[in-house]
Structure formats: C-alpha cells, structure tokens
From TrEMBL:
Family: Belongs to the unc-50 family.
Keyword annotations: Membrane, Transmembrane, Transmembrane helix
Lineage: Eukaryota, Metazoa, Ecdysozoa, Arthropoda, Hexapoda
Organism: Drosophila grimshawi (Hawaiian fruit fly)
InterPro entries referenced in this protein's UniProt entry, alphabetically: UNC-50
Name of the protein this chain belongs to: GH19021
Transmembrane regions listed in the UniProt entry: 101-124, 130-154, 175-198, 204-228, 240-260
Membrane topology summary: Multi-pass membrane protein
Length: 275
C-alpha cells in the first residue's frame, strides 16, 4: 500500500453550498445589496408619499449636505450628480429622498423675493402677492411643466432601449431644482445690487450688464440640466440639450445690439403682475 493512502482528499464545495454561503454572507453584510437584488424597491407613489411625509420632520433632514450641493452647483455641478449616481446604487432611485434641498431653495427664493420687492418699492400686500407668485408659479408650477416635458422626452426618445428603466419624474423635477438655483442667485440676488444705480439706466453698459446676467443665468440652467440627464448611463443623445446654448448667446447679442434691456423688461413684467 502506498505511503500516501491514509491521506483523505476533500472535494470542492457543491454549487448549492456556495450559493448558500453567498446568501448567508449577503444577509450579514453591512453594505446595501446591489440594485438588482433589492426586494424593497418602492413604487413611485410610495416614494412620493415618503418624500412628502419627511417635509415636516426637520430633524431627519441633512441640511448641511443640501447646502454643500448648493455651493457645488456653482463651482462643480458634476460632483452633485455623482452623488445622484451613488444614491441609485444604494437606494435604487436617482431622485432625492431628503427634502432638505427643496426647503433651503424655498427659503432662498423667499429671501431674495423680499429683496426684489424692496427694490421694486412694493407695498406690503403687493410684496406678499409677489412672493407667493414667484414661489408657486415661477418655481413650482414652471418646474412641474419643465420636468414633465423632459421626463416624457427622455423616456420616449432618449433611452437606449425600452428594456432600460424609466427616468423617474421626481428625478426630472430634481434636475429642474438644481438648474434653477444658480439663476435664482444671479438674477434675484446679485443683480439687485446693480439695478437701481446702473442696470436701470439707458446706457449701453446698463443693458450689457443686465443682459449678461441673463446670459449667465440661462446658460447655467441649460448646462446643469444637460449634466442631470447626461449622467444617466442608459440615455443617448443628451448633448442635444446643449443646442440651446448657442441660441441663447445669439439672442444675447441681438437684444444687446438693438438696445433691449432684458432686466428692465423682466422688472416691468413683475410690476405688471402685482399692480
């Protein structure tokens, strides 16, 4: 008999054992399971209900992170959308599940609208109507329309395959809110410091500066909207959104040359709505 006959050779574990081990280890893993293995994916209605319910739970909101997002929407918006991809991998949704950003945006909109009403010399009740109109119509209502448009277009025409998941409407609305914030600060806040003594005049530098604010604000909106949809892997031809940029620049040149100050027209339109 061979001197090695007493050695017992073990066989590799069967596939069922490996599968059982993997399942057990996944149950005890501190990391969230991949999206494809999640069994707790919520419906759109459930996600909306969960989001709205958290509007009144301030202690559960991450205002510090929302403020970080607002700052980086100015200096590096790509980093903001990188976080949306992380959320998709961990929580199986692109849209925000924390309303802190929306609340901070509404606070900014309220404060800047108060300043705008002061610059326009509005009365108290005119200011109240103006603030209500800006928040409900200019931000929320217009945002619902724009988000619904991009939601329908991206799902209908820009998905690489019908087998790919739909773009969430909530995410489309988040993209609008992200793109809305920089123009809000530029047009409703920074521009106010130049309006009475410079932009409201009839000089060339006045309409150049006023129209330049609008050029920057609209360009920010288009570029951040593009980033929002370009970061989704299963969308194609998202660069078509950038076609709006040369059109905006051409309009900027035309209105500046013909002597039209977009900011003065914007202010007159606001006055007309509250008087």
């Amino acid at each position: 008999m061979s001197q090695y006959s007493h050695i017992k050779y073990t066989t590799s574990p069967t596939p069922s054992v490996v599968s059982g081990y993997s399942s057990a280890s996944r149950l005890h893993s501190p990391l969230p399971p991949p999206v494809g293995h999640r069994k707790d994916c919520l419906s759109a209605t459930s996600k909306t209900y969960k989001y709205l319910r958290r509007l009144f739970k301030f202690n559960q909101m991450d205002f510090e992170f929302a403020l970080w997002q607002m700052i980086y929407l100015f200096i590096s918006p790509q980093k903001v959308y990188r976080n949306f991809n992380y959320r998709k991998q961990t929580k199986s949704q692109f849209a925000r599940d924390d309303p802190a950003f929306l609340l901070l945006l509404l606070v900014c909109l309220f404060v800047t609208s108060v300043g705008f009403a002061y610059v326009l010399n509005l009365s108290f009740w005119q200011s109240v109507g103006f603030i209500f109109y800006v928040i409900s119509v200019d931000c929320i209502f217009a945002g619902v329309i724009i988000a619904s448009f991009f939601w329908a277009v991206t799902n209908r025409f820009l998905r690489t395959s019908n087998l790919e998941p739909d773009i969430e409407w909530g995410y489309a609305f988040d993209v609008h809110l992200n793109a809305f914030f920089p123009p809000l600060i530029l047009l409703h806040f920074i521009q106010l410091f130049f309006y009475n003594w410079l932009i409201s005049q009839t000089w060339f530098i006045s309409r150049f500066l006023g129209n330049s604010f609008w050029l920057m604000g609209m360009s920010y909106y288009v570029y951040i909207t593009f980033l929002g949809y370009n970061c989704i892997p299963h969308l194609k031809n998202t660069r078509l959104i950038l076609i709006a940029l040369p059109i905006i620049f051409l309009l900027y040149l035309v209105v500046t040359i013909i002597g039209w100050n977009a900011t003065i027209s914007f202010v007159n339109f606001y006055k007309y709505r509250v008087y």
